[in-house]
Amino acid sequence: MKKPKYVTKEALKHFIKNALEEDIQEGDHSTLATIPKDLQQKAKLLVKQNCILAGVELAEIIFKQFDKHLKVDVLLKDGDSAKAGDIALYVTGSARSILSTERFVLNCMQRMSGIATLTHDWDSRLVGTKTKLLDTRKTTPNFRICEKWAVAIGGGTNHRYGLYDMIMLKDNHIDYNGSITKAVKMAKEYTEKIKNPLKIEVETRNLEEVEEALNAGADRILLDNMDVQMMKDAVKMVGGKCETEASGGITRDMLKAIAATGVDYISAGALTHSADNIDLSLKAVK
Prior knowledge:
This is nicotinate-nucleotide diphosphorylase (carboxylating). Pathway: Cofactor biosynthesis; NAD(+) biosynthesis; nicotinate D-ribonucleotide from quinolinate: step 1/1. Residues 115-283 form the Quinolinate phosphoribosyl transferase C-terminal domain. 43% of the residues lie in helices and 19% in strands. The protein has 286 residues and is of the alpha/beta class. The chain has a six-stranded parallel sheet with strand order 6-11-10-9-8-7.
């Protein structure tokens, strides 16, 4: 599976380094006190409930970054449908290294697998439509790279990664600025000034704002908290002149009806902020 463009070696190295420093600091004293330095052992990563597995590749990178001598044998890869009782991978090497990375690996994989599982379930309701399922910036600080990666593993599409890779004029931007027309005009001038052709998305709350955003030249119009009929009217008004995105209070049961309006995208913060962790464990192989 191809990783999203923001999942780079440098970004992952930085994330892993910071997480290990947070957890270990001057040392994993429980392990240092009880486990001989030269003890070699093996552990298995056990799946304890059905899920779409995510974070396997990340786990291998974590193990290797902490201890390059650890050997990881992957049995299930990211995006695989796993069942309770399956073994995702084996890790062999220094018992100290295995124990010191155990919880970090599990935290990442449990959270990522939960997000991938929820995303896969939601995305399956859009099969046969042109509508794509997007995540949002409603992510955990310093863990966004994993959460958005998990959405992609689950079959969803990543929205902008951060504040830097797209201009998104939300209600507060418009209210502070004065009008959609003025805000879009200034945004276009800004992108020309910095020589960066960022797409401009505008959040709208009613059909009047949709018309104004369309006339102002927005690249994408976000239909915020609109009912299905208003979304349908908005999509008809836009007429394919720019992209449309439904957002705000989206639930699983609404997906098919919203897709039927013809919107290009549906974005849902629930993919990352409301997914349940999947039960996984790392167990010693005796």
